[in-house]
Amino acid sequence: MELLEQISENLQKGRAKAVKELVQQAVDQGLSPEQILEEGLLSGMNVVGEKFKKNEVFVPEVLVAARAMNMGTQVLKPLLVQAGVQATGRVCIGTVKGDLHDIGKNLVKMMMEGKGLEVIDLGTDVAPEAFIKTAVEQHCQIICCSALLTTTMGVMGEVVKLAQEAGIRDQVKIMVGGAPVTESFAAQIGADKYTSDAASAADAAVAFCQALA
Ligand code: B1M
């Protein structure tokens, strides 16, 4: 079986140690970290997601797959995060209130750090007030919100509203993303930018910071 396929298969089975070793093997063979992430780790997680939807696997299986995914991304982290890149801006990021999914948010954080941005990670289940408080106190140029549930994506609208009420809307850009989020939803709530993946989110954040500098 091809190496990337093996990574995907082992991730689906939640074999964290094997995933870690296989990802390292793939790196050693010279495969790019982006390819390992997309065609190995994320491809496996997508299969898990589909099975979860059809009730073919349940929360415990998804959790062990998520743990395996994290072990794999830890190997890739130093390769995705370029050493010694000069910080170009400050961002706070979190998964919105009511939502505990953090794999995508962590990838966005990793990619942004790789571009030299300073990223304050607020974790998961983050209240809109916490995004605003951090942005004000830590002088962030960008607030990044991630949501994976259709029931929590509305919280992103509350973040935009609170930023307006706090009088910081013209000083801070608000970026949104996550599987159920779309460009039109972002426009509807008045966010500044939607991106579909972590790498594009990092590019967009750098562009915002450069424009604000
Ligand atoms: Co959850 N879950 N889950 N889950 N889970 C989904 C999201 C779901 C689509 C599964 C399904 O039904 N097919 C479904 C949501 C349905 C819906 O709302 N329409 C769902 C559900 C229902 C639930 C529970 C309610 C299940 C239950 O308890 N009955 C529950 C909710 C808990 C809660 O949050 N309150 C739940 C729980 C869990 C686990 C804890 C078991 C686990 C999370 C573990 C963890 O994150 N540490 C989990 C997982 C792993 C998933 C799936 C399988 C995988 C999500 C993931 O990590 N994908 C997911 C199915 C799926 O998405 N296929 C599912 C990989 C990750 C890299 O992708 O986060 O989309 P993603 O990030 C992408 C982009 O979206 C983007 O960048 C990344 C790629 O580069 N991105 C951004 C993300 N944030 C961004 C921000 C940006 C820009 C881009 O700018 C700021």
From TrEMBL:
Residues 88-213 form the B12-binding domain. This is Corrinoid protein. It comes from Candidatus Acutalibacter pullistercoris. Belongs to the methylamine corrinoid protein family. GO terms for cellular component: cytosol. It comes from the Bacteria. Signal peptide: none annotated. GO terms for biological process: homocysteine metabolic process; tetrahydrofolate metabolic process. The lineage of its organism: Bacteria, Bacillati, Bacillota, Clostridia, Eubacteriales.
